[in-house]
Design goal:
alpha+beta; PH-domain like; 3 helices
Length: 113
């Protein structure tokens, strides 16, 4: 998924970042696992994702991943509702639980928004 920035945050504290990167942000969704990068790259299983959320503001469409074994989150800014919707749709097919905000973005996959 193309990202313009990535952030590490805390569960339950939206919009506060502990670390961020716009130099090499990454979210790569593979068949059996995924890779994400804010400062350093990490590879994890989809089973480790507790929740997928979407947070938006002007020019920002963040796909937020909460992990089962960590109090930290990953947020990738796609800057696009359509790209974020595609990521959410893939994560849903991988068995990840979606918040109502993430579910509401799914129609954008078919609408081309």
């Amino acid at each position: 998924m193309p990202l313009v920035a990535a952030f590490t945050g805390w569960k339950g504290v939206p919009w506060v970042a502990l670390a961020h990167s716009n130099l090499a942000p990454r979210l790569v969704l593979y068949e059996g696992d995924f890779l994400y990068q804010v400062v350093r790259a990490r590879r994890r299983s989809y089973r480790e994702i507790a929740m997928v959320d979407v947070r938006t503001t002007v020019g920002t469409v963040n796909v937020v991943l909460e992990f089962r074994d960590s109090s930290f989150t990953f947020a990738g800014n796609t800057a696009s509702r359509q790209i974020a919707a595609k990521a959410v749709a893939i994560l849903m097919r991988k068995g990840c639980q979606l918040t109502p905000r993430a579910q509401a973005l799914l129609p954008a996959v078919n609408a081309g928004a």
